[in-house]
User: Fold this.
Amino acid sequence: MAAPVEERISVPIDDPNADTEWNDILRKHGVIPEKPPSPTPLIEEAILEGRRLAHENRLEGKDLDELDELEDLEDENFLEKYRQQRTAELASLTKKAIHGAVYPISKPDYSREVTEASNNGPVLVNLTSGLGTNVESRVLTELWRQAAQEYGEVKFCQIRGDMAIEGYPDRNCPTILVYHKGDIVKQVVTLMTIGGVRIGMPQIDKLLIEVGAIKDNDMRVLKRMRDAEDLEEEKREKGGIRGTSKKAAVIDDDDDDWE
Assistant:
């Protein structure tokens, strides 16, 4: 008769983090270190804190008309707090809006209108193309007008590239130059790195935030971001409806085949 085969028990002593009775004994005697605390409570706490902040800041970026629409859904005192905040912000923006349009400048004006003026805050210059075929230049020129109207506290200037810098190549246009305290602090040659011909106001917002012309919690920026999110959500919902309709149509066709 063959001798019984010895039964071996595998104990994961090589994994000090394993939840085993053997490891508990080893920890008790200091053979292996105590098991590190689970990160789960910290993660759950961070999630709850994120939800709390999101709820508290749910009215951030909403304008006065949008706040009025929430009268039946939100606490009146809470709404009034944000109304007063928005009114104060609008008053401050109106007071600071000393520009409101693009300044077309010439080379003799450059030092005064750009370099010296940048001591009072960032000045953005658009070096435009002299050719009507430069699509990027035309796109940025239009956005420059919109940005100047929307951000009246920021100075936007414009000059043809080869008039500002003799021999400046048209292939480098448009070029964005940002001056602050008399120096160039940002330079963007063509729109290739900021969206190309698909550039929009969100990219201009990002540039203005980067150079310190506006803050990242600016109500105009937050509103544009929220509008973009709402539009994306609407597209997803419409896509889901269309997808459901197509699926229903296919099912109907299949049913017809069996009739």
